[in-house]
Amino acid sequence: MVGKTKYIPTIGIECHVQLSTKTKLFSEVDNDARQKSPNSCVSPVDYGLPGMLPRLNKAAVRYAVRAGLALNSKINLESRFDRKHYFYPDLPKGYQTTQLFYPIIGEGYVELPSGGKVRIEHAHLEEDAGKLSHENGDSLVDLNRAGTPLVEIVSMPDIHSAVEAREYTKELWRLMTYAGVTFGDLYNGNMRFDVNISIAPEGSDKLGTRAEVKNLNSFRSVERAVEYEIKRQARLLDKGEVVVQETRGWSDATGETTSQRSKEEAQDYRYMPEPDIPPIRLTEKDVVEQKALMGIPLWIYRSFLRKFLSEDIVEVLLDYKNLTDALFQLNSYLCDAMNLTDEKPATNDQRKVLSSKLKKIANLFSSVLLAEENSSLLNDELPTSEQLNTLVEMNEKNELSSTGMKEVFIKFFDPEMHFKDTRTIAKELGVVQENDLGELEKIVDAVLAKPETQKAQEDFKAGQEKVLGFLVGQVMKESRGKANPSAVQDILRQKLQ
User: What is the pLDDT of residue 266?
Assistant: First the structure.
């Protein structure tokens, strides 16, 4: 229920994905302008100088095919470019080269983790415009982004809540990054979302008038903007007013959308076929080749992680492809060590071993590596499968406590420690647990002989179990943390009982 009447929201999302090619779509200029000076990555083609002719970047076409395959879409073997005319300071040519009538990617769909499905109407290749920034009443133009290759993904209006809109945009980001077609840097605008929102009274057979919120670059912003627009439009309709079809901007600071301009339709852009770029003609062989180069798709990673992790941990880890890759590689390493093949699959006992080891490493990734204080380590080289496997085995053999395991894990990222084997690192840290029962018994005897432990011993013999923790702590202190707590507890019980 929103307002006085119950309204049903209908949401469609257009997503601009910047492709991670080395050069721009139609010029031989650096495509990755992050941290570059304004207007330093621009060519005469991007400026639109007279006589400059575009040359299509073949890599952008290949990446577009991969994007389409990740979207479960039909790849159109012939596609063409068009000119979209409009005048704006960040578009010096006076038109944008895009695909309207014959896009390279046809119908497809995105399956959401929650089980829903959002249909893709189409996706097309196009060049980006430049960027305007406004300071002290002045507007500054940076054309570094002009001409960068984009795939614009247009969804069908299959989304009906702010939460679902966020889920769809996040899954879209994952699909594109796992397909390897974009850097996926939301902060620098590698993916931007234009969200179309309308509401209609429940039971209505007509959609409401839509408003488009432009250039959202975070999943949270998408969710908040949709929530705000649904409430804003409901208030207007409840008062008997009309929703205006327009383009609106979003402010994270105020949590509100504001009107920018009336919404244009296709005819307002005076589209015409692009005369300077020949049609793109692909073969089925081209598509098959790109599919083979995509690597492991997202759905396989998700299916793999779900075998040994809870759903919430799976969805956290899927945001970090380097971590899921590391777990995938560790699984292969373990299977090789156990001589497992497709012809010789794991037994139930072997599956339990695999699952236990993978789960422990996954929990280290999610609880230690993704902790805020360690977030800078995500860009570092990850430990090898051999290091991770030895780490888990030392824990399973009670040579490392859970705390010791975490300490060694963090040291893997120390440049001076990274190439050392796990056991060496553990020894240098002094966290290898003492498991020699004879040595442990000597330490326990020494602790029990101390006057300050006499009362605790008497209390335990009188039935006060909780004091055992104090005695274990005294033994751990005496051993400088190296004693195996479980073994110490067993020895104490034997001696005190």
Answer: 62
Using the Cα atoms of residue 175, residue 179, residue 184 and residue 190 in order, give the sign of their dihedral: negative
- In three-state secondary structure terms, 171 is helix
Which DSSP letter does residue 1 get? Answer: -
Please, where are the H alpha helices in 57-196? 58-70, 162-178
pLDDT along the chain (497 residues), means of 10: 77 98 96 87 90 95 98 98 92 94 98 96 96 88 94 98 98 97 92 97 91 96 98 95 94 94 75 96 98 94 96 96 96 94 92 96 95 88 96 91 92 91 93 73 81 83 83 78 76 80
Torsion angle of the four alpha carbons 409, 410, 413, 417, in this order, in degrees rounded to the nearest 10 = -70
Judge residue 67's burial from the number of C-beta atoms within 10 Å of its C-beta, 0-12 exposed, 13-18 middle, 19 or more buried: buried
**What are the tokens at 397?**
């053999």
Backbone angles phi, psi at 301, to 5 degrees: -60, -45
What radius of gyration, in Å, describes the C-alpha atoms of the chain? Answer: 30
Alpha-carbon distance 193 to 106, whole Å?
A: 19
The β-bridge partners of 273 are 82
- pTM for the full predicted model: 0.88
For tokens 């077609």, the residue is: 181
Give the CA distances from residue 186 to residues 17, 70, 71, 304, in Å, rounded to whole numbers and listed in that order: 10, 19, 19, 27
Residues 161 and 157: their CA atoms lie apart, in Å, by: 11
Quote the DSSP letter at residue 264. Answer: P
Q: Are 336 and 330 in contact (CB under 8 A)?
A: no
Q: How far is CA 125 from CA 61, 181, 290, 346, in A?
A: 8, 13, 16, 45
Alpha carbons 3 and 107: distance in angstroms, whole number: 36
Q: Which tokens sit at 465?
A: 């179990």
Contact 140, 173 (CB under 8 A): no
Helix axes 162-178, 298-306, angle to 10 degrees: 110
Is the sign of the CA dihedral 236, 242, 243, 244 positive or negative? negative
**Residue 343, beta-bridge partner list:** none
Six-digit token pair at 455?
């009362």
Residue 128 is encoded by which pair of tokens? 């980006």
Report CA-CA distances (Å) from 335 to 292, 299, 382, 432. Answer: 24, 21, 20, 27
Distance CA 236, CA 248 (A): 16
- Residue keyed to tokens 């707590």: 485
Reduced to 3 states (helix: H, G, I; strand: E, B; else coil), residue 278 is: coil
Q: Give the separation between CA 21 and CA 181, rounded to whole angstroms.
A: 8
With beta carbons less than 8 A apart as the criterion, state whether 105 and 290 touch: no
Say how far apart CA 68 and CA 63 lie, in whole Å. Answer: 9
